[in-house]
Amino acid sequence: ETGVTQSPTHLIKTRGQQVTLRCSSQSGHNTVSWYQQALGQGPQFIFQYYREEENGRGNFPPRFSGLQFPNYSSELNVNALELDDSALYLCASSLTGQAGAVQYFGPGTRLTVT
Amino acid sequence: QKEVEQNSGPLSVPEGAIASLNCTYSDRGSQSFFWYRQYSGKSPELIMFIYSNGDKEDGRFTAQLNKASQYVSLLIRDSQPSDSATYLCAGHSGGYQKVTFGTGTKLQVIP
User: Fold this and answer.
1) Would you tell me how many other CB atoms lie within 10 Å of the CB of residue A86?
2) What tens digit of pLDDT does each residue of A94-105 get?
3) How far apart are CA A110 and CA A87, in angstroms?
4) Which of A102, A109, A110 is the mutation pick for testing B, counting most B CBs within 10 A?
5) Which of A18, A32, A89, B85 is most buried per CB count within 10 Å?
6) What's the Cα-to-Cα distance from B50 to each of A67, A81, A112, B99, rounded to whole Å?
7) Cα gap B7→B24, rounded to integer Å
8) Residues in chain B whose beta carbon is closer than 8 A to a beta carbon of chain A?
9) What pLDDT sits at residue B28?
C-alpha cells in the first residue's frame, strides 16, 4: 500500500507568479483534500475533490483552484501569488463512504513567496 | 468563534507522566474527531479517531469524547521525549468530508 505523495517538496516563487502543486492519493482512496498551514497555525481547509469534481471549499479566493484526475491524483493551482501564500501546503486522501472520514496526509510542499 | 479550540501550550510534563490534551468544538453536527501529531517541519500524522461517546484506547493513547459537553481529549500515558510535538485536534462535519482543525497544543516531555 503506497502512502500519499506530494511534489515538489520545496518551492520558491515571486509575488504575482503562478504555482502548481501535485498530490498522489493513497492507494484505494478516492477523495483528496488540500490544506494550507501557516507557521504556528492548524491546517486550513482549501477544498476537496471527489469524482473529479470540487466537493467543498473553504474560505479561499478563486485564485486557488484545483483538479482531480481519473487516477484520483490531484493538483492545486495558485495564481497571482501573494506574500501571505507562503505556507506548508498539505494534501490528504481519504475514502468517501468510509466511516469516520479518516484523512491521511502527504509530506507537504513548503511554498515560499518572495 | 473558532470551530475547534485548543490551548496552544506549551504543555510540559516529565518523562513517564500522563499528558492530557484537551479540545472543545462548537459545531454540534460534528460526527468524528481526530488527533494528529505533528513534528516541527513535518506533516500531521494520524494518532487516533473517535466517533462514539466514551473512551477509545490504542497502546499508550486514549481518546475521550463527550458530545454533550462538546469536548474531546487525548491522554498519553508513560510520556516519552519522542512524544514532544504539536498535537492537532480535528472534527468532521458537513455533507462532505470537511475536517476542521484546531491550532494545536505543543507538548514538551522533559527527560
Assistant:
1) 18
2) 887 665 678 999
3) 6
4) A102
5) A32
6) 31, 38, 35, 13
7) 10
8) 4, 31-32, 34, 36, 42-46, 49, 51, 88, 90, 92, 94-104
9) 86
